[in-house]
Write a structure and sequence with these properties.
With 220 residues, this protein is an all-alpha fold. Helix content is 63%, strand content 2%. Helix 1 runs antiparallel to helix 2 and helix 2 packs antiparallel against helix 7. It has a two-stranded parallel sheet. It has one domain: Fumarate Reductase Cytochrome B subunit (Up-down Bundle), CATH 1.20.950. 27% of the residues are buried. The protein is globular and about 60 Å long.
Length: 220
């Protein structure tokens, strides 16, 4: 069974590499690369928000984001039901929203931040100096939420791999469920070639538009 469509899979790995690159370039003091990678994260998050409404079945928010009651019900039944529902679990849905929220916040706050000396974000001039400095402080604080969420994500992957014997990482590479056919249920998440090309084009457009934000920076 196909679960994850190609645009969603490319988004996943592109976001991972961009976040890692943004962190590494910041720690190394290579701010031009940090800015570009942060803008890439911004474009990818915007794409994912749109794709959450027009993407494949399991990419759409309406098909995996549920209320807290469904999460508690899933937690109670998780150890009893041997048949897994295709796509994100109710608990994983909140992890997806948290990752998108934090990544979007970091990209947005970084775009309006400044250190008062050498670096200012491409849209920092739109805020007062005081507001921009506050955004900078929040941006620095946000990195700890990034580390926490990434750590939880890794722990979840390892738990599913070694305890539940489900290869989540492999599924995000080839898009197909690793479970036997009798242990997974749900709608196939495959999409047409036209839909795939639309998704890839949308992703490129979102990232390209985000990369154009430095053109807004005043020349003085």
């Amino acid at each position: 069974m196909r679960i994850w469509d190609l645009p969603l899979r490319i988004f996943h790995w592109a976001l991972m590499l961009s976040v890692i690159g943004a962190i590494a370039s910041s720690k190394a003091g290579v701010m031009w690369a940090h800015e570009r990678l942060g803008l890439t994260v911004m474009g990818l998050v915007i794409f994912r928000l749109i794709w959450g409404f027009v993407g494949g079945h399991h990419a759409r928010f309406v098909n995996f984001v549920t209320g807290p009651r469904a999460v508690f019900s899933w937690l109670r039944m998780a150890g009893e039901n041997s048949v897994r529902q295709a796509g994100h679990s109710p608990l994983a849905a909140y992890s997806v929203l948290a990752l998108l929220g934090v990544a979007g916040f970091m990209a947005g706050s970084g775009s309006v931040s400044n250190d008062g000396i050498l670096f200012d974000g491409p849209m920092a001039h739109l805020l007062s100096m005081e507001a921009s400095k506050q955004a900078t402080s929040l941006h620095h604080l946000g990195q700890y939420f990034v580390f926490a969420l990434v750590g939880l994500h890794v722990v979840a992957i390892l738990f599913y791999k070694f305890v539940k014997r489900q290869g989540l990482t492999a599924a995000m590479v080839h898009g197909r469920a690793s479970d036997p056919a009798d242990r997974i249920s749900g709608v196939d998440g495959g999409i047409s070639t036209r839909h795939t090309l639309f998704g890839l084009g949308l992703m490129v457009a979102c990232v390209a538009l985000a990369q154009m934000l430095p053109l807004l920076r005043p020349v003085w």
